[in-house]
Every structure is written in C-alpha cells, then in structure tokens.
Amino acid sequence: MADKNESFETKDFGWLVAMSLLFLALVAVCFWLEFRTEWGPYQRQFPQLLGHYGKGQEARDFQPGIQQIWIPKIGVTDRCITCHLGYEWSSVLPATIAEPLTPHPTNDWMTKHEFAKFGCTPCHGGDGAATTVAGAHQGGRGWEDPMLSNALAQQNGLAMNGMIEMRCNFCHRHDAATPGMDEINLAKVLFKKKKCLLCHVVEGRGGATGPELTYEGDRNPELLNFAHVTGDHTMFNWNVQHLTKASAVSPKTAMPDFNFKPEESRALTLLLMSWRRLTYPPEYIPDPEVAAAAMQPSPTSTVTPTPSATPVAH
Amino acid sequence: MDGDRRKILRFIGKGSVLAAFLAQIGAAGRAFFPNVLYEPPSRFKLKKPDDYPDGYTLDEAHRLYVIKQKDAFHVISAICTHLGCNVQWRDTEFDCPCHGSRFRPDGTVIGGPAPRPLDWFATTVSPDGYLEVDSAKDVARDFQLVIGGNGKA
Amino acid sequence: MGAKFKALWRKTSWAWSPESDRESSEAIVKNFWLHWFPAKVARASMDWNYSFWLGTASASLLMILTVTGLMLMFFYVPSTERAYGSIKDLQYAVSFGRILRNQHRWAAEGMVAVVYIHMARVFFTGAYRGTRAINWVAGVVLFLVTLFLSFTGYLLPWDQLAFWAITVGTSIAKQAPFVGPTIQFLLLGGHEIGQQTLLRFYVLHVFFLPVLVWILFAYHMWRVRKDGGLAAVEGIRNARVMVPKATPKTKSYSLFGLTPGTSVAVMSSTGLEESDQVFSSPNMSRRIALVFLVVFNITLLAAILFNAPLEGLANPSVTPNPAKAPWYFVWLQELVASTTVRFGGYTVSGALLGGILLPGFLLAVLTAWPWLDRSPIRAQGRWLAPERKRQNMTFAIATLAIIILIMVGVYLRGPYWRIYWPGQPRPETPRLY
To answer: For the domain C40-238+284-417, what is the CATH code?
Structure first.
C-alpha cells in the first residue's frame, strides 16, 4: 500500500515543487511590472531636476504616483502629467529639457486656458486615462482621437500647432477669426469666399444641395468611401482630396472641383473636422467679440500671434 | 367527521400558500416588464424637407436614410433585417458589416442572410412643416412623399 | 519550539486524533476540505492519460474566475456612462488591476475551451452510460451556462464589441417562434439597448449565473462520487473476469476434519480490489493542487503577456466593420450569416435556422446522446472504443466543422463579412488622421 502511494508522490512531487516555484516567480513578475512603470524613471528624475534648478523644497515635497487632472464638467481625466511632470514649471525649467519633462510653453493663449480648467486632451487629443505611452498617444482600437503629435501632423502636411487649431475651434467656432489660429482663420475666409453655404447647411443656414456640415467632425471615417482616395485611408485625407477635386473622390457628386491649393484644402479640412457636438458648459465658450477685438490691431485675415511673455521655441 | 374537516382545512391551507406563492412569482416576473421606457417615441420629426440634399442622407441618431429625389421623399431604415446591425450606403448598395447582407438602393435583398428587405417607414409632413417618420409603420416599396412647390405634401 | 507549534496546530485544526487506519480514513471524511473526496480512489481515475484532469482544470478556472470576479466587482460600475471608464481605470490606474482583468478574461476564455474539451473527453471515453447519464446532462447544462457567463461578461465593458454583441444576441432571441419578441423585450428591459440592459446583464453575470454554476458544479461532483467515480473503473470491472484465487497455502478445515485442497472456491470479485485503489489524501488532493497550480500559472502568464481586448466606447450609430464575435461564438456568427434559405416566395432567416434551430438541435442531440448510444456497455470507460467508432467519428466531425467555421470567421472574414484569402489585400480600416 505504502509503496504504491509513494509512486504517485514521486510522480507528482517534482512537478508540484516546480509549479509552486513558477507561481512564486509569476507573482514576482506581477510585482515587478507593478513597480517598473513607464512613468517611474521620470518621477525619480523630476525632483532631481527641480533641485538642480534651485527648487529644493518643491523637490522634497514631490509626491510620486499617478497624477491626474480631473475636470468632471467637461469629462476630462488626464493622467498625462504622470510623465509630463514639468508641464507647469516653465518659469523654472528651461524649454530645452527633453520630453516628457519639458515644461509646457507659456504664451498668450496659455494664460487664458489654464491647466486646471482645461487639462490636456481637450487641446492635444489622445487618451487621458492611459498611463502608458502607447495607450495615451495612440488611443485604443476604436474611434478615440489619437494624440495630435508632431509626427501625425507631419503625415498630414501640417505643423503640430496647426493641427491643434482644429481642436481650438471646437469652442472658437463662432469667432470670425481668432488670434493665433492661422489655419482655421484661412479656412474661415475661404469658406465665406467660396460661398460654401450656397449648397451646405451649417447651423440652420445655407442651401440643401449638398449634405449638412454642422457636425461634419462627428462623421465616422467608416462611413466614407475610400475607393478613389490615394494614400492613407484617413478622414483627413478624404476631406483634403475631396476639397481639392471632389469629382475624383466621389464621381457622382454635385460639388464642383475647387482646385484649392494643398494648404487651403488642409485648412478647410481642419475647419470641417473641428465641427463637432460639444458638451462643454457655457463658461468655456468664448465670446466672438473678444476674438474680434483682439484681431483689431491686424485687420488682415492672416494673423500675427501676440508675442508671448517668455518666447519659447516649440 | 373531525378527520374530514381537517382534510378540507389542510387543503385550503396548502392551496392558499401555493396560490399566494405563485402569485408572488408572477408579481416578481411582471416587474421585469417596464411600464415606462426611457426611449424616443416611434413617431418622430426629422428636419424640414428643404434641408435635405438629393440622394441618400444618413440620420445617425435615428438609424435611417432619408432619400430625396427631386420633390419625392422616402425613408429607409438603416437597421439590417437580419440581426439589427447598421447597414451602410455605399453609392450603389447597402452593405451590412455584421453578416454581409446586401441590399439594392430600394432596400430589397441582393444577397447575404437578410430574410426581408429593409423597412420603408411611413413618412408625412407635420403641420409645422417637418418630415415626420413613424418607424412602427412599414409602407409599400413604391411609397413616395411628394412635396409641392409650397412645401406641402 | 517546532514541536510545540505542531501541537498547537493540531489542537486548533483537529478536534480529534486518529488511532487506527480506519480512524485515519474517517479523518478524511471529518475534515472540511477532504470530505469532498472518497476515502479511496481508483488508480485508474488518477491516470493523467485517461481524464487529462480536465474537470479539475475547469473547476480550477471556475475558482479563479469567482475570486478575480469578486475583486473586479469592487472596481466596476454597471452604468452606461461609467462602465467604460471604470474598465480604463482598471487597465491603467488600479494597482494590479490590469493583471486582475486580464486573468479574469483569459480564464473565462480558457474555461469555455476546457469545459468543451472535458466534454469531448467524456464523449470519446463513452463515460456517460447508466447512472452517469444524468451527470452528462448536468455537464451539458454547465457548458451552456459557461457560454452564457462568457456572453454576459464581455458585454460589461460597454465598448463597441459589447454593444453590437447585445444587438446581435438579443436579435437572435427575437427570432424564436412566438415568444421571441417578448424574450428580447425582457432581456433589453425595453426596445432599445440602454441602462436597463446593462444592469440586467450585470446582475445575471455576477449573481444568477455564477450561483447556478456553483450549484450545478456541486451536484456534478456529488454525482461523480455517487456514480462510483470516473468511468475508467467500469473498464477495470468489465475487464476483470471471475477467476478463482490462487489456492491458499493453508490447510482447509471441513466437518470431517483436516482435508487436502479447498472445499469452497474463493473467487475474486468484479468490484475494485484493494490493489486497484489508493488513499485520496494525499494522492488525489496533491494532484488537484498540482492541476490548480498549473491552470493558475497558465492564466497568470497569459494575463502578464496579453491585454484583454477593449474596443472603442459603445456607439449605437456606427457598427464596427466587420463586427466580429469572440472566437467561441464566431462559428455561430458564421452559421447565422450563411443559413438563410430561400425557396419560392418563402424565406427562413439564418437567425432562426443558424441561430436557434441548428444550435438547439445540436444541443438536444448532445443532451439525449446517452440514450441514443446503443453500443455494448463494455465500450464505456475506454478511449476510442472500437464499438463506438461511428459515434466518435460523428462527434469528431461535428467538432472539426465548428473549428473550421471558427477559423474562417476569425482569419478569413474582412470588412462587410466578405472572405479575404491569406495574401489577398484587405481594405485598410479608416482612421481619423
């Protein structure tokens, strides 16, 4: 009897020990992953940086961990600042510090769009909830906006700030022109000049020959026909090519070929894609007259941005 | 005699407990059928007829296509008759992303698993001049709402 | 010190000490953890190559799912507005939350697979004859509840997959004759998918279905014991013929005094002999611990390596293209997509044929199989018994068909559910920028 029991013991015992060790090892890996975060190194580096620039007290007060800007009324939960720790330290840290610790440039519009009121993603896009670079910058599978990075802007033939203007116009859509928003300002001029409202309804005004454009930015790229679009299948590309030569993208369309210059098509695309349903409360929506007054010194449509207090290369 | 009375009383007792228990189960079950729904009504208004361009216009919120040909309107459901996914208008036909059903421009089936054509919804013009759709009412496949010059049906 | 501690441990964990072998085996029955097992178990049941311990693996997965699921309940909010955000928080902001959710997800997918393979094992060994037929039915129900648990589970993140799976799933229910629309209304809590729907599926997922699984699991285990253990032992019983035992060397006493030879022949029984069995504890309990550890390690490793899928936030106005079910439901998706039949003016929707009638028929046949099986009883408890060749082929072909459908659905289907062969270019998925 006893020897037979032992046969099972000898068969299983080694495996049992091996599996127990593997169990311990895997749990150890879990702990290692938990403490080896992507943001960990930056959070160790940051207090040293503060100390280096003479902010010893702040460096000592620094509390490591996931940091977030939470603004429930506009649905913002932005954990970007878990890595981008220098964001509000432009008065102390030089702009030459490498990302992600680079301070956010301060300029005229930054004083009107403070972090506590806007967070990060309303301007930059991306997934604010994520605490990994891939998750935050590219977003998940689906329809979340990817972050408007330099690389993404370059792919679309634009500068990053130009691309971000699209998101500025979520709130600034009723400004005739806004200081600093060159792309959108150009598009707004073109939109008037080419009389788009003859055929398209926007906010209840305009003709109904073409589709309504009030919420064009909410249209889903899945619903566009990419059969005649060259290059990447992006809504941006579709709009640029459609604006340049509508007949090439939608053969049956009634829209004339405007033969816009590439930069004009891109600007108009930004304008179209900026027209989204907004859920921001009224205090966030700027008065168009304020923008108009700010535009007074330079009445031309092309705008010279107000020089910022501490000019920073961006 | 005493035994009979006991029998009857026992029967009544057991019977009432059983009946009350069944009624309770019924009451609990009934609660799962909501009496009020937080849903839009099946009859709703769209935009004014003049606000629609010629051709197929998707109304994403109501999951339907408004089709305008000159002065004639009809409304086709964008909900696939197979298993309820949203069909997409692709210039020449409707296609379904879930199980590959295909429909002609009038909603009749070309291929795929869809058992019947896409619904045509009863469409009228409301007294205040909006297109009004009743998604509970299916109409014949030659239904057209013709709007006169003055915007009246 | 060590001895004192040992004595203290005995005092706290045992109310009594065994003084004989018999009492030792009774000790197992009196221990809370060990009373699940019989005192002794057949060596044949312990064999890796007979059962592959798939039932134990399924139970291990159920245990893992229950514990991880209870943990997840502390973080998940069953509201259409907050469900998606709470999953994002688990993924990114809760300590070990990513591992927790991943392990729950991979254990769930693993359980669907392992429970099916367990069922296949029982089928291929013909282990559902006689009194075990009832337990086979319990097993089929357990498999079905496992599938429903998976279905209700992947709806909870309220992403695109969730939304369109409910749309398709409840639309299939709607196709049921007569009661279909009522069932759909009941499941959705209305005509459209909304907060009520999420809450109903949530309560089903975290309470009713798990309770049902645990009750059925307890019954399943109880039946295994009452039916005499695994069917492997029946094989031993069948193989054993009544043979006289070797004549004992002792002398035999008869009424007439001492006589040579034996007067009463002692035959061996057809029951299990002492030599066929081993004590359950520690042999079986040790092996159960080993299987649990293996399963736990596999799910934990998967949780470390792969993130559970999470699509975009649920959007009723856009169906993803293509909208694919998880792999274990893709074969059903293939069926509903390809079984619409048209003859003359009549059309039978694939939703009814492929979504309800065909799976219903398969399920009915599966449930009734123990009573359809007419093979000789000696075919039970053996792998691929030649007497059951045709039956085993039927099951294997059905399984293969399901696997092929899953492969087609997972690898070949592209946008608009069209077939794209390997190497054939697929249309790019449109993006914003």
So the answer is: 1.20.810.10
What CA–CA distance (Å, rounded) separates B54 from B40? 27
Total CB pairs under 8 A between chain B and C: 99
- At B77, which helix (H) or strand (E)? strand B72-77
Find the residue in C nearest to B36 (Cα).
C190
The answer to whether residue A69 scores a pLDDT higher than 50 is: yes
B120 to chain C, minimum CA–CA distance in Å?
Answer: 19
Who contacts A62 (Cβ-Cβ below 8 Å, separation ≥6)?
A: A43, A46, A47, A50
Q: Do A22 and C297 touch (CB under 8 A)?
A: yes
- Which of C170, C186, C338 has the CB atom closest to B32's CB atom? C186
- Beta-carbon-side half-sphere exposure of residue A64 (alpha carbons within 13 Å): 14
Q: In B, which residues are within 8 Å of C354 by CB distance?
A: 113
- Reported as a single tens digit per residue, the pLDDT across C207-254 is 999 999 999 999 999 999 888 888 888 877 776 766 666 655 555 555
Angle of helix C358-372 relative to helix C132-155, nearest 10 degrees?
160
- Chain A residue numbers touching C309 (CB-CB < 8 A): 141
pLDDT at C260 over 60: no
- pLDDT tens sequence across B30-75: 999 999 998 888 899 998 888 888 889 999 889 999 999 888 999 9
Residues of A within 8 A of C310 (CB-CB) are 140-141
- Which element (helix H / strand E) includes B4? helix B2-31
Chains that touch A (3 or more CB pairs under 8 A): B, C
- Chain C residue numbers with beta carbons less than 8 Å from the beta carbon of B60 are 317-318
CA geometry: angle at C174 spanning C169 and C178, to 5°?
150
Domain locations in chain A as residue ranges: 40-147, 154-295
Amino acid at C389: K
Would you say domain A154-295 falls under CATH 3.40.50?
no
Residue B29 sits at the chain C interface (C-beta within 8 Å):
no
Chain B residue with minimal CA distance to A203?
A: B51
Q: How far apart are CA B86 and CA C433, in angstroms?
A: 24
| H helical segments located in C175-279 | 180-188, 195-203, 209-226, 232-239
C92 with A152: Cβ contact below 8 A: no
- Minimal-distance CA residue of chain A relative to C302: A26
SS3 B135: strand
CB contact under 8 A, A225 and B91: yes
Q: Residues C15-27: what's their mean pLDDT? A: 73
Q: With both helix axes pointing from N to C terminus, report the angle between C327-338 and C97-124 in degrees, rounded to the nearest 10.
A: 60
User: What's residue B39's pLDDT?
Assistant: 87
* Every domain of chain C and the residues it spans: 40-238+284-417
Which residues of chain B neighbour C351 with C-beta distances below 8 Å? 82-83, 113, 115
Buried b (16+ CB within 10 A) or exposed e, C367-383: bebbeebebeebbbbbe
Tell me the pLDDT tens digit for each residue of C340-370.
888 877 888 888 999 999 999 999 999 999 9
Phi/psi at C6 (nearest 5 deg)? -60, -45
Q: Residues of C299-320 as b/e, b for ≥16 C-beta within 10 angstroms?
A: bbbbbbeeebebbbbbbeebbb
Number of CB atoms found within 10 A of residue A5's CB? 13
Contact A222 B88 (CB under 8 A): yes
